[in-house]
């Protein structure tokens, strides 16, 4: 689905991503983990079109999407969420979702003047779809609440809901669990799994919660110092000595022996 081939991104003399190659397979929930400064967010920004790589190529299927802008990738079904949710705080939950679909007839002055029935019909369809998304995510009780008043976890659910308002193919989730309580994190996890299994969404997520990664992701890709260090199941990477050394701990070979009592 997504292929990253020998991608590098340099900021002056700093190599944020350094000749990294990885794949996000269609139909997978892929985890992307690593220590702070490993290049994970830069990699997401490159894939999502927020920054252009210094070298290398990005492919969506067989199409070279290197350097395309986020709005162009949005139209191709590649979307991302952010560690800090980007809601419209003064709009309701329902209105936030209704804002997502592009090319709405009501956005065109001529249609609003001369095709009011088309505008009303399309708005009714979008409203119905938004209501279905709200129900899917279990947010019916806050459907008319201003998005700015939601909890952190509810805002993350709303961000996930925005991806459901268009024909999403690949969704990049940036620390979906950050600042979210365990109950809501489980709800978010359930929604991601349902979207993956029932609607064919492909996900890639940056996350530091290894319990969540273990529950959700296969495969897991580990980055360190701007490059790919390891890839495998969650259990495989957790027992990989190089991963333990760079990310999860000091490494088995450096752990002091426990004195026998």
TrEMBL record:
Note the superkingdom of the native organism: Bacteria
Q: Which Pfam families match?
A: ABC_tran (PF00005), BCA_ABC_TP_C (PF12399)
Enumerate the SMART domains for this protein. Answer: AAA
Please provide the record's keywords in A-Z order. Answer: ATP-binding, Nucleotide-binding, Transport
This entry's Gene Ontology molecular function terms read: ATP binding; ATP hydrolysis activity
One GO cellular component term of this record is:
plasma membrane
- What range(s) does the ABC transporter domain occupy? 2-250
PANTHER family the record matches: CONSERVED COMPONENT OF ABC TRANSPORTER FOR NATURAL AMINO ACIDS (PTHR45772:SF9), CONSERVED COMPONENT OF ABC TRANSPORTER FOR NATURAL AMINO ACIDS-RELATED (PTHR45772)
Q: What is this protein called?
A: ABC transporter ATP-binding protein
Instruction: State the organism named in the record.
Output: Leucothrix pacifica
């Amino acid at each position: 689905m997504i292929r990253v081939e020998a991608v590098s991104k340099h900021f002056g003399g700093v190599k944020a991503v350094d000749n990294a190659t990885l794949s996000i397979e269609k139909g997978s929930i892929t985890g992307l983990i690593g220590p702070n400064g490993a290049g994970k967010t830069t990699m997401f920004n490159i894939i999502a079109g927020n920054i252009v790589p210094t070298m290398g190529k990005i492919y969506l299927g067989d199409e070279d999407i290197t350097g395309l802008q986020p709005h162009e990738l949005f139209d191709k079904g590649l979307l991302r969420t952010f560690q800090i949710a980007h809601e419209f705080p003064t709009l309701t939950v329902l209105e936030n979702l209704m804002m997502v679909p592009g090319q709405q007839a009501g956005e065109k002055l001529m249609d609003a003047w001369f095709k009011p029935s088309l505008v009303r019909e399309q708005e009714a369809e979008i409203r119905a779809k938004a209501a279905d998304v709200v129900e899917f995510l279990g947010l019916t009780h806050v459907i008319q609440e201003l998005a700015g008043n939601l909890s952190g976890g509810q805002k993350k659910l709303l961000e996930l809901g925005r991806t459901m308002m268009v024909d999403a193919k690949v969704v990049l989730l940036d620390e979906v669990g950050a600042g979210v309580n365990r109950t809501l994190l489980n709800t978010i996890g359930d929604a991601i799994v349902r979207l993956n299994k029932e609607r064919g969404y492909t996900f890639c997520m940056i996350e530091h919660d290894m319990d969540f990664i273990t529950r959700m992701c296969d495969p897991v890709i580990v980055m360190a110092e701007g490059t790919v260090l390891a890839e495998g199941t969650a259990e495989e990477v957790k027992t990989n000595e190089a991963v333990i050394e760079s990310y999860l701990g000091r490494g088995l070979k450096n752990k002091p022996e426990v004195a026998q009592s």
